[in-house]
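User: C-alpha cells for this one?
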Amino acid sequence: MKTRFLSLILTSLSAALLLWVAGGERAQAAGSFLTNSPLHTQRWFQTATVLPSGKVLVAGGDNDVSGPLSSAELYDPATGTWTVTGSMTTVREHHTATLLPSGKVLVAGGNDLTFNPIATAEMYDPATGTWSATASMSTPREFHTATLLLGGKVLVAGGDYNASSPTNSAELYDSSTGTWTLTGPMVFARALHTATLLPSGKVLAVAGYNGGYDFFTELYDPAAGTWSIAGTLAKGRDLHTATLLPNGKVIVAGGEGPFGITNSTEIYDPTAGTWSAGASMTTGREYHTATLLPNGKLLVTGGFKSFVLPTAEIYDPVANTWTATPNPMTAARRSHTASLMPNGKVLLVGGFGTNAIYLASTEQYADVSAAAWTATNSLTVARRQHTATLLPNGKVLVAGGFSDSGAEASAELFDASTGHWSTTGSLTNGRAFHTATLLASGKVLVAGGDGNTGVTKSSELYDPTLGTWAGTGNLNAPRDFHAASFLLNGKVLVSGGFAGSTLTNGAEVYNPASGTWTVTGGMSIPREYHTSTLLPSGKVLVAGGDSSGFTASAELYDPNAGTWTATGSLIAAREYHTATLLPSGKVLVAGGYGSASYLASAELYDPTAGTWAATGSMNVARENHTAILLPNGQVLVTGGFGSSGSSGFIGSSEVYDPVTGRW
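Assistant:
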C-alpha cells in the first residue's frame, strides 16, 4: 500500500485534470455536493473502506430500528448505486476497518447488542463478498484506532475496554499469520483519539479522552515497538480529526475540549517535533470528517455544534486559510463517513441528521480544476535518463542523468508550492539509467546505472532532512537499464538490466536496516527495459523488455519465497513501455517499442486470472513516455519518442479511462 499512498500524494501536488462522469452518475459542478443513491439501511458510526476495485465497502454501525448492525453494502462509482453484500459475523459499531495489502478488509472491535466493547475481529473478502472470523484481540475495545504500518501489519491502540474505561494497550495484527501480538503500551490511556501514519513509518496518536480531555500526543516507533511523548496541544480535545498533508505535516482540527466545541486547529511538524497553531475553521465542530483532496487541500464536512451541521469548508495548506464551500451539503449530518474515491470525488455516507434522524442518504463532493499546463522555471542542468522521486515533504527530487558534461552527479528539488527548482546535494557518483526508490524512512535509494567510467554497482542514499547523499552497500553485480520495486516488507527488489557486458536475469534485494544487498532468485530469462510493478498481494509483476529481442513474457516475484513464477504473457512483445497499477488492482501496460515499430497498443493484466486482455489503443504510438495515475482513477501519458514528431520527440499527452477503456 505504500506505493498507492505515494501515488496519491504525487497526484495531489497537481490540480486534478479531469472530472469523471460515468454510468449512472450525473454531471456535477466543481465545488458542489450532489445527492446520491441512498443506502439500503440507515446507519451511523459505520466504517467506509475504498477497495482496490474502486468500490466502497460500508459496514456495521447503528440505527434506531435495529440497534448495532452486522449488515454491509457496496457503492459502485461506475453506476452510482448501492448493493447489499455479505453481513459481518457479528453486529458492531464504533469499530475500525483497515484495508490490508491483500485487498481484504480487517474489521476489529466495537460494541455489540449489549453496547459493551468486544475483542472479536473478522475479514471481508471482496472476491467472494463474504466475511470470516479471524483471531480476537487480547483486549475488548471500542473508540480505538487502527493504522496500517508500512511493514503491512495493523497497529490497534487505545479505546474503551469496559464501558467508559480507556486503555493504553496496543497490539499488532499480522495478516500473514492471522494473529495478534501485544506491542508496547501507550504512555497514556485514551479513547476517541486519532492515529496518523507519518512518512517516517511512525504513528502519531493525538489527544482523546481519558477521564478528561487529553492534551498529550505520542509517537509509536514500529522498529522499537515503543511509544514516546510527542509534545502537547494548546487545547485538549477529543472527537477531532487529524490529517497528513502533502508537506508531511499533520493538521488537527476541531473537536470538543474543556471549553466546549472548538474551531481551533494545530499543526504538527515531524521534522522539528513541534506543534504550532493553525488558522481556525469558520465553524467549531465535532463528529465531522476531514478528507485530503487530490489538489492537496483539505475538505471538512458536517459535524455538530449546538445542532447537526450542513456546512463544509476547505483548508488551503499553502495559504493557511479556511473557506466555506460554495454550497452546503444536501443534508446536515454528523458521525458519517467520507471516502475519497478513485474518480477524485468524496463520498459522504449516512450519519445522524436533524430531528434525531438516522440517515440512509449519501452524497458526493467534487472540486476538479480545468485541465491545464502551467510553466515552471527550468532545471539548473538540462538532463535526460534521470530519475524523479516524490519526497514525503511534497517536493520532487531529480537526480543524475546525462547532460552535455556526461553522467551527472547533480540533483535538484522541485517545490510544487512555488513552482521553482533549487539545487540540493550532489550524488557521490554521476550516473544515468539508474533506479531511485523511496524508502519507508523517507530516504531515497539510488542504485546502479551508467557512470562516466562504465556500468556501476554502487548505491547511495539521499537524506531529505540534510539534503545530502551517503554511500550504502554495493549491488552484487553492476547493472543499468534494470527495474526496481519497493516491497511491502520495506525492502527493495532490483531485477535484470545490463550487467557490464551481458544481459542478466539476476535479482537482488536491499535491506535498509543493514544497508546491504542479498541475491535472490533469478528471473526465468534475462531482460532489460522491462517494467516492475508492486501488486496489492505483495508480489511484483515484471513484464516485457528486451531479452536478446523483444519479449512478451511476464513473471511474478514472491518476496516470501524469494522465487519467480511465470504468468500470462503480454499480447504484444514490447520494451520501453509503462506499467501502471489501477485502483481496480489491474495493471495497464501502454506503448513501447516492438516488432521494429513504435506501439500505440495497450493491455490490462488481471492478477486474479493471471492473464492479459487488450484495451483501447493510444492515439499516438510512443516509447520512453511517462504514465501517472490521476486522482480520478484515469492514467495520464505524456511525451515520449515515436514517428509522429518531426524530430521523433512527442509533446502530446493523452488520458486513459479504465471505465470506457478508451484514450
